[in-house]
Amino acid sequence: MEMIDDARFDELLDAAIRDLPPGIEEFMDNVALFVDDEAPPEAPDILGCYDGIPLTERDGSWGFVPPDTISLFKNNLIDYARDEEHLQEEIRITIVHEIAHHYGIDDERLHELGWG
């Protein structure tokens, strides 16, 4: 697929966010979403990444911490997609996948659920 400019990627991202499953954002008040051009060198092929403390691992002392983050890797998503429709779908799937990590769901279970 040809390169997509930042403005068009943002439009597809906004559409993917609007299409998230209802209620998925219910416990997302301290999570920030970022878009980076490139994945980190230690994981060059990933589409997205969750960095934080999953809700299932938090205790009563959790608080006053920086937000958890979800990063999407724009160039990998574009390279992976067949066309813009597929790109929008992969953005949505990647966001759901990373949100699931925030909820404490691991990769094995995500693959079983079809969100791998």
From TrEMBL:
InterPro entries registered for this protein in UniProt: Zincin_1 (IPR010428), Zincin_1_sf (IPR038555)
Domain of life (superkingdom): Bacteria
CDD domains the record matches: MMP_ACEL2062
Gene3D superfamilies: 3.30.2010.20
Protein name: Metallopeptidase family protein
Organism: Brevibacterium daeguense
Origin organism lineage: Bacteria, Bacillati, Actinomycetota, Actinomycetes, Micrococcales
